[in-house]
TrEMBL record:
InterPro entries reported in the protein's UniProt record: Class_I_gatase-like, ThuA-like
Gene3D superfamilies documented for this protein: 3.40.50.880
Name of the protein in question: ThuA domain-containing protein
Annotated ThuA-like domain residues: 49-270
Pfam families, per database record: ThuA
PANTHER family: GALACTOSE-BINDING DOMAIN-LIKE SUPERFAMILY PROTEIN, SECRETED GLYCOSYL HYDROLASE
Length: 280
């Protein structure tokens, strides 16, 4: 009887269709495209800012659109020209020379060709300013290792997950930097909290904001970093400046006055409107 039951169970198992995960929503996972022909640029005054929103990985259409609107407004409020595009072919020596800073609006995936990588790295090291927002530092792996290892200084390893993906927590802010001086020392807000494989160091790194893990539940356990848990920082890459903020998952966060204050301060610092060299 036991042998007969085992045979019956084996036959039944053989008939079970293997699990197939649901297809990825193309709105969130667009087909990757490597751009080769750059967009035509209008006349731009010196000190212009490029907003790049290219996604070859995960994409949140609502967040990208909301951030685009706010970013262009913030740049113009600083009396600077701004050009927004999703065409990564703009990253070439001739076009990059027309910009003082680039804001990466939750870019994702492998977006640059080898030539574009070389052009971007050279532009940064020679003094370009970079502002990386949320997903621009949130890929679980990078084909171009220079991006997490040198530009950002840490590898994203995950964020708070469902059902606790979005939680209110307390951010502890270093207000001695031009990008953060107008923020409160204790900033309470709701976010999807990013975690990283290390605390970034070297390259003149300044940790500008950490999240207090005692103020929320770092779930799952692998996203627990302990103290400190950095979420905003700045670095020097050659003569260039890099500012990274992991904040800004939801579209509505770009309407938050304090979040706008942080981004505006980051842009001012990246274009060298404030501070000498790569210091305060």
């Amino acid at each position: 009887m036991i042998l007969r039951n085992l045979i019956a169970l084996a036959a039944l198992a053989a008939q079970v269709t293997p699990y197939t995960p649901p297809p990825r929503d193309p709105r969130n996972w667009p087909t990757p495209v490597m751009d080769s022909v750059p967009p035509a640029l209008p006349r731009l005054r010196p000190g212009a800012v490029l907003v790049l929103s290219k996604t070859n990985g995960f994409r949140d259409p609502q967040q990208i659109a909301a951030a685009k609107t706010v970013l262009t407004t913030l740049v113009r409020s600083q009396s600077r020209d701004v050009f927004e595009t999703e065409n990564a072919a703009i990253v070439n020596p001739q076009d990059l020379a027309r910009f003082s800073a680039i804001v990466f609006n939750s870019t994702s995936g492998d977006i640059f060709t080898p030539a574009q990588r070389a052009a971007f790295r050279s532009w940064v090291e020679r003094g370009g300013g970079v502002v990386l927002l949320h997903g621009a530092g949130g890929d679980p792996d990078y084909a171009w290792r220079w991006w997490p290892e040198t530009l950002i200084g840490a590898q994203f390893i995950g964020h708070t997950g469902r059902p606790k993906q979005f939680q209110q927590a307390t951010i502890e802010v270093d207000r001695s930097h031009p990008a953060t001086r107008s923020l409160p020392a204790k900033w309470v807000r709701t976010e999807e909290w990013y975690s990283f494989d290390r605390i970034p160091t070297g390259h003149g790194t300044r940790i500008l904001a950490t999240v207090d893990e005692t103020s929320y539940d770092p779930f799952p356990e692998r996203v627990r970093m302990g103290k400190p848990h950095p979420i905003v920082w700045a670095r020097c890459i050659g003569r260039g400046r890099m500012f990274f903020s992991s904040l800004g998952h939801k579209a509505e966060t770009y309407a938050e006055p304090l979040h706008q204050t942080l981004i505006a301060g980051a842009i001012r610092w990246a274009v060298r409107r404030e501070a000498r060299g790569c210091g305060r």
